[in-house]
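FAQ: What does the model actually see?

It sees only this:
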Amino acid sequence: MRRIDLLGFAIARGQVKDRASNIVLQLRRQALHGFEGLYEKLGHAPSLPVPGFKLNGLDPSATSGPAPLRTAGVVETANAALTRTAGVAQVCAMSDDAPMPDRPLRAGWTTGACATAAAKAAFVALATGVFPDPVTITLPRGQQPQFALAEHALADGRASAGVVKDAGDDPDVTHGALVRATVERGPAGSGVAFRAGEGVGTVTRPGLPLAVGEPAINPAPRAMIRANLAEAAGGAVPDVVVTIAIPGGAALAARTLNARLGIVGGLSVLGTTGIVVPFSCAAWIHSIHRGIDVARAGGIAHIAAATGSTSEAAVQRWLGLPEIALIDMGDFVGGTLKYLRNHPVARLTLAGGFGKIAKLAQGAMDLHSDRSRVDPAVLGALARDLAAPPALETAIAACDSAGQALALAREAGLPLADAVAARARFVAQAALAGASAVDVAVFDRAGALIGHAAA
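And it is asked to produce this:
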């Protein structure tokens, strides 16, 4: 199961529904803005030459790219394509093994919201001797949820309080974890200082929004904690030291991408608004962005973005890349390419299995099985471009799965995986708008390279 940070909980159902709708609309607008050149008229790279159609200025019929497909495929508008395939344009499941419940989704709180509640309760107790239970906090957008305390203690000039994180229906590794804040007085004029307690990581690599050596408590949760402590103090930011701990967090962090990002010793305290929608794409795409940032800050000129663990391990062996150069993009090739267009590296290798790369070759920007499908007619058209006998072309176009089509092509000695890689590279080039050189590698389930396309 893929890992994402928690989402908002205990908000009135109507508010959650309205917020989810607004997020979808905002993300769809962002996706349309980000890919306006890629999907000017069609949802996919055209299956028939279309006069005047270009992908970010690249003519699909030009000799510099793969030959245009000569049989009809799926043609759809940009909005329909984004609704169906763009991971950044919809609220979506993060993995095939985390199905959405067949009922209204219950949201949850971010780790940052839980840390804020625990910190405020501890600060109030330090000031008054009494722990507010439940404790009310104010989130960045004005919501004021309440949190019950799971533990509290006051002794020796410090106070601590803990809140159990409820992830609602979101598949979050930190669901049920205790988030503890300990507050003590700091030097005059110091403001709020943050420390990492048990289970909270420390930043060891540049490229993240925190300096090396800082506790992995992100800027938004820090701002939320400061604002709520100031509110409790009557308006002025108090001079205190806040230590955030998540007991057992080091073990949980082993199931996340923290080590790759250079966050060691535990989890990150995350969350921009304190509430997010269950099964959201946002957290995974955020981790993709931070992975790219860390690679760039580390001077990495060549990164590899893979759709899964098999292709990631295979591309690392093949290219000899360090771990910092590996991006776990999953199904979110669109989010990866969009970010790289504005934050480029010298070279990008996209790696995946035949089916995932075939979807990219069709123009899909979200490769999840619920949001894009391999079109066997497109594979049949590619086979024809490779001079396949008509009977083989027809057989491939009639296949029920990408694997079946690949098996027929390999049996006939037809380099279909190379053709798919070339078409996928062309689509990726268009999305990158020349920001990075790109090649595409296709691997089988055993991690063997079966297709490749490069400049």
